[in-house]
Amino acid sequence: MPVKIADSWKNILQTEFEKPYFKNLISFVKSEYKNHTCYPKGADIFASFDFCAFYDLKVVIIGQDPYHGPNQANGLCFSVKDGIPHPPSLINIFKEISTDLNKEYPQSGNLEKWAKQGVLLLNATLTVRAHEAGSHQKQGWETFTDQVIQQISNENKNIIFLLWGGFARKKAKLIDKKKHYILESGHPSPLSANRGYWFGNQHFSKTNEILRGLGKEEIDW
């Protein structure tokens, strides 16, 4: 099965698609989607790559798993479709943006507008079975998305990586710190945020400050 992924990414990742682990992964995913309800819908599995070309990338945000409730996941980490109630982590992301940038809390939880500005919203695992968090982990997705991070690090420069929580922070080892920027904090989930590890990290203003310094257009968060 050919992978439907934007051309600029396909050129960079083509060798991954031909590896045995990836073929096994695709076969697993096809079987899961055939026999169970899974998210996001098939056309959105690679959506995080659709909005921004590889060399136009500015920021990478790493999540863990797609949302596993009905109509939530749209292929972008932390994002939900228009009109869907905001999950707790997204609420805390928007609260931090409101205080950090003195902006109103957004109505829509759809983060496509970030993606179109060069923000890669990458989950480590790109699919999930309905109501079963983590059900598609350790099937090969993590190998693939680690390779995505590695290739961004190798082939690009001056990318800002926002690593939120212990899981995302482990990805720092894949990133060349001499070529890129890494901002770390706790996860925006209520558990972490309520312990004081998320609010006040100012990652959104800090990201824009770095972009200004690089002569790039800021992100309209």
Q: What labels would you give this structure?
A:
globular, alpha/beta, 8 helices, 11% strand, 221 residues, four-stranded parallel beta sheet, single chain
Q: How would you describe this structure to a colleague?
A:
The strands form 2 sheets. This protein has a 4-stranded parallel sheet. Strands 1-4 form a two-stranded antiparallel ribbon. It has helices at residues 7-17, 20-35, 88-101, 112-115, 141-155, 165-169, 190-193, 203-213; strands spanning 38-39, 59-63, 119-123, 128-129, 160-164, 181-185. 36% of the residues lie in helices and 11% in strands.
Q: Strands of the largest sheet, in order across it?
A: 3-2-5-6
What is the first-to-last residue Cα distance?
36 Å
User: Shape, please?
Assistant: globular
Q: How many strand segments?
A: 6
Helix content: 25-40%
Q: Provide the residue-averaged pLDDT.
A: 95
Tally of alpha and pi helices: 8
Major β-sheet profile: 4 strands, parallel
Pfam family, one: UDG
Function: Excises uracil residues from the DNA which can arise as a result of misincorporation of dUMP residues by DNA polymerase or due to deamination of cytosine.
Subcellular location: Cytoplasm
Main location: cytoplasm
Topology:
Blueprint: H1 7-17, H2 20-35, E1 38-39, E2 59-63, H3 88-101, H4 112-115, E3 119-123, E4 128-129, H5 141-155, E5 160-164, H6 165-169, E6 181-185, H7 190-193, H8 203-213
Parallel strand pairs: 2-3, 2-5, 5-6
Antiparallel strand pairs: 1-4
